[in-house]
Amino acid sequence: MQLHRHKDEFISYDTNVVFIAFSAGALARNWLQETGISFSILIDQERIAYNAFQLDRSLLRSWGPKTWLAYARLMLKGHRWRGIQDDSTQLGGDFLIDRQGKILFTLRSRDPSHRPSVEKLLQLVSDHHRNRET
């Protein structure tokens, strides 16, 4: 959701943000509708990308104290609990890949809260954009 608030900045750097999900299309579409996010989403039910990027699965790290605390904070803000949907042990990651397929940045999540800041991603995209122009 933080990325979506900065969508125009990513667009200004000629950058596409794409989410990859392993959930069936209906779950992914529902998530997009609930969050109002308008980025592209690709469905990888066979987890080909997850395996290629060596993304981990862990029950302990997926449902540790940080995750429970994050859900408690969301519910206190009025968000509703949707229950566990699909495989909640699958951990994600964040990757920046340029048009030639070169991986510019990799972060494999240790737990669901382990994410790079939007500012860091924008700085990396900005630097790459600037270097591409010179």
Produce a short descriptive summary.
The chain has helices at residues 2-5, 7-12, 25-35, 48-52, 59-62, 65-76, 118-133, and strands at residues 18-21, 40-43, 93-97, 103-108.
How would you characterize the overall build of this protein?
There is one protein chain. The protein is of the alpha+beta class. It has a single domain, classed as 3-Layer(aba) Sandwich (Glutaredoxin). It has 7 helices and 4 strands; from the N terminus they run H-H-E-H-E-H-H-H-E-E-H. It has helices at 2-5, 7-12, 25-35, 48-52, 59-62, 65-76, 118-133, and strands spanning 18-21, 40-43, 93-97, 103-108. It is globular, with a radius of gyration of 16 Å. The termini are far apart.
Question: Helicity level, as a percent range?
Answer: 40-55%
H/I helix tally: 7
Number of domains: 1
Q: DSSP strand (E) fraction?
A: 5-15%
| Gross morphology | globular
Spatial strand arrangement across the major sheet: 1-2
Number of strands: 4
Main sheet: strands, sense, barrel: 2 strands, parallel
Stretches where pLDDT is under 50 for at least 5 consecutive residues are none
- Global Rg: 16 Å
Helices, strands, pairings?
Blueprint: H1 2-5, H2 7-12, E1 18-21, H3 25-35, E2 40-43, H4 48-52, H5 59-62, H6 65-76, E3 93-97, E4 103-108, H7 118-133
Parallel strand pairs: 1-2
Antiparallel strand pairs: 3-4
Question: What are the defining features of this structure?
Answer:
134 residues; Glutaredoxin; two-stranded antiparallel sheet; 4 strands; 14% strand
